[in-house]
Amino acid sequence: MIFSRSVQKVLFIAFFGLQLWPTDIFAQQFATNSNTNASASLHSSYVAGSNNTIGSLNSSSFLGAGERNTIQSRSSYSVVMGGFANTNGSRSVMNVLGGGQENTITSGTAWSVLVGGRRNTTKGSYSTVVGGAFNEASGSYSTILGGFENSATGSNSLILGGKFNDVAGSFAFLGSGFSNAVSADYAAVLAGYGNLASGMFAVVLGGRANLASAPFALSAGFRAKAITDGTFVWADSQNADFSSTGTNQFLIRASGGVGINTNNPGTNALSVRGAAFISGNLTVSGTINGLTNFVGPAGPAGPAGPQGVAGPTGAPGAAGVQGPQGDTGLQGPQGVAGAAGAEGAVGPEGPQGPQGPAGPTGGVNPTINS
If residue 63 lies in a helix (H) or strand (E), which one and from where to where? Predict the structure, then answer.
């Protein structure tokens, strides 16, 4: 986590700066004869103490005072600052172990910080334990800030303190308390006793024996069980489970009543002081007492009334203004040729013409003898 790496950088600058001094100066002025610096551990140093050991093939490691402390082999650039019987394991490079008793940075761990306390352990690279006893940070980038027998196995997890707490989810958080657990990623238990957040993105705010086992669930109080997605369950001090029954519920068990804008709900399950607006249907099972200024829904339409008496005839309306002249119409198509007319009647007889001239005198006919 960011906190762990920041602590490491400060301690490395402070402690490794001592390496500018020659190794033999430290050995001559501060170390006792019982300290051991194995062969091929170049630029590694002691400052006082007894029965301390720097293993072989360590480069630029530092062991400052204390007794029976060990930096095992191939753990270059590591620091143990005093204390009793502390161990930086083999092949665990660039770690800082600051005092305390019987603390261990396990083999193969890098960039880890363990400061003080007793029998604490870091197993994950970039992990941190600060004080307390029997704590173990085994997830990479995990952090435990004190307490007793806490365990952070999830990567990027954080425990602030408490006792017998466990975080197995990645990016998960446990504040404090006793025997709490977070087993899902991005989940949290803030405090309390015997609480469990096992749903992804679930949260237990505090209290005792609460459960948030579904995604996005939230519980608090005593024996509140948010077991369905997106549900918030609050339970009072009654010694019985109070569980959700469907998704996206908001459930409250409060035997003393719930008050809104009042701190004295009396014997009511719900007491509201002030205006309330309900959009939708309201179903009441029981008696409504003392209800005032209640606006109900609109009733159904009444039957049609009888037809009214005809009113007097109105005065004639004024003449309308003459409209503008219309446009000339388009010429129509040529008509069809008419049928042949009937034969006309015989005209009247004309006048008698003038007498013609006399014809020529005819010849004498021959006599015919019988």
Answer: strand 62-64
Compute the distance between CA of residue 183 and CA of residue 188 in angstroms, rounded to an integer: 9
Give residues with Cβ within 8 angstroms of 161, minimum separation 6.
132, 145, 146, 147, 150, 175, 176
How far apart CA 132 and CA 115 sit, in angstroms, is: 9
Alpha carbon separation from 131 to 9, 86, 97, 144, 227 (Å, rounded):
19, 13, 11, 8, 36
Q: Which CATH superfamily is domain 2-176 in?
A: Serralysin-like metalloprotease, C-terminal (2.150.10.10)
The secondary structure of 185-241 as a DSSP string is TT-EE-S-BS-EE-STT-EEEEEES-EE-STT-EEEEESEEE-STT-EEEE-S-SS-
Q: Which residues of 108-127 are buried (b: 16+ CB within 10 A; e: fewer)?
A: ebbbbbbbbbbbbbbbbbbb
Which residue, among 209, 255, 211, 257, has the nearest Cα to 233 in the 3D structure? 211
Residues with pLDDT less than 50, the chain: 1-3, 7-8, 10-33, 40, 368, 370
What residues does 222 pair with on adjacent strands? 208
pLDDT digits (tens, 9 = 90+) for 309-360: 887 887 877 776 777 776 776 776 776 776 776 776 776 776 777 777 776 6
Point out which residues pair with 250 in neighbouring strands. 232
Amino acid sitting at position 229: D
Q: Which long-range contacts (CB under 8 A, 24 or more apart) does 47-50 make?
A: 47/18, 49/82
Max CA pair span of the chain = 218
DSSP 243-257: E--STT-EEEE-TT-
| Domain extent listing, the chain | 2-176, 200-264
Q: How many CB atoms lie within 10 A of CB 20?
A: 7
b/e per residue 335-368 (b: at least 16 CB within 10 A): eeeeeeeeeeeeeeeeeeeeeeeeeeeeeeeeee
pLDDT tens digit sequence for 35-65: 665 554 556 666 667 888 888 887 778 888 8
Beta bridge partners of 243: 225
Q: Name which of 220, 255, 225 is nearest 238 in CA terms.
A: 255
